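Fold this complex.
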Amino acid sequence: MNLINIIEEIEKVDSDVYERFSPRRKAMKSFFNMGSKIALAAIPLSLGSMFKKAYGQTPTGILDVLNFALTLEHLEYNFYLKGCAKVGIPAGCDSESIKTIRMDEAKHVKFLETVIKSLGGTPVKEAKYDFTAKGTFPDVFTNYATFLAVAQAFEDTGVRAYKGQAGNLISSNEVLTAALQIHSVEARHASHIRWMRQQMGVDVKPWITGKESGIGAAVQASYDGEELDTQAGILITNINGKDIPYEAATECFDEPLTKEQVVAIVTPFFA
Amino acid sequence: MNNLTKQEVQELPEESKGFLASRVQRRSFLKYAGMSAVGIALVAAGCKKDKQIEGVYLGSGDIGILNYAYALEQLEAAFYIQVVTSFYSGASDDEKIFLTDIRDHEIAHREFFKNALGGSAIPSLEVDFSTIDFTSRASVLGTAMAFEDLGVTAYDGAGYLFKSADYLLLAGKIVSVEARHAALIRELLSTNTFLGAEVDSNSVNISRSPAEVLSAAGKYIKTKINAGDLPTA
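Structure:
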């Protein structure tokens, strides 16, 4: 059970951890008694309330990451919400797919809000958005192709954003795992949006080739750095004499973005 | 004491299971009572001592997790190499391009882990694809879907086991590509299934423990794998 190690980790920096939990043994007991079959999604919540009871707070770094993630999920959800209402999304597969993604983002918002509250934090609220990005995408809600292009940039950026925060969550097994699990869903979205665009004749694949977006300079910051073909000092192109083209070498690893880079990318979308 | 795999726990006598199930409370109790938990650790270690001799040994700590990933990438690469060597009948041009790309990605992942692990790398595993009909689109794409979905849940379920943030990031760089593969393969099989049953009620991807993943992958791997010392927390 990961929990034991969390407490042991805490013990390294706070030798009184067991004492702290001690007066709340009832809370601890009810936590343990939930058993191993508990849904993973519920673990951060239980863990959160336990931390809160013991310390009265959660490490602020973790809450910062979660609120950063929530800020992006709010942005994505509102984008799909308005898009579904305004853009003429072709009926059938396209319409169903976008609805599925919109629902996912709504659930991510709810999930993150619940986790943040359970950790004793205050979830950030929705903002006011400008999905034309100050006029960069004037037809975002009138031209389906533009809508999908912006969707792709959001999803690919989201994947990079979560990836960039993983290291900041390494102290909390449960929150890290939850973040990785959302990260995978964002990657599935990105793949699917790219495939939808490819079906419309755009030159993109489900994976990111070099630093190409198939969109244009307006979103380049979301793709810069993806052209990397060296990982941990190991050149991937033609690695070990295998016939791995440069393109595949860049596709097979997705790259992270820092929080600052992501903020700079999404700022134009906030009114 | 946290090194026991699920399989090993299952092999323990009944009374030990109960003991393990309640070890959390006991642990706390021991702490309060000022006693040492070393005795428990020795008992647990004794249970798995003989297991390390059998099969390819993945190792412990971060190396163990990297070897675990290397094993899965070996499996995926071997599969796609065979797929691309002779495509199933009726493969579209798009499908051929996508599957060739995926083959290259998986070979790159495999070779990357091999080089990164260096002397700690496990040897090449022997695969068993006798249950796959490589001439059938449904069989090939169905297996591809299973492998990709499994890979995503494996990385998501093992990320927290890394001690090194650098290794965690490398795994993160790979898992999103596996998720991209999974979504595409699913879409080729059936529209609007890019998530399928792979997400839970919160729309987060499910995850699997190394024991669960290796159990599922075992059908396709002839070589016996010893994951007994992988970290569990």
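Chain B has one domain: 14-226.
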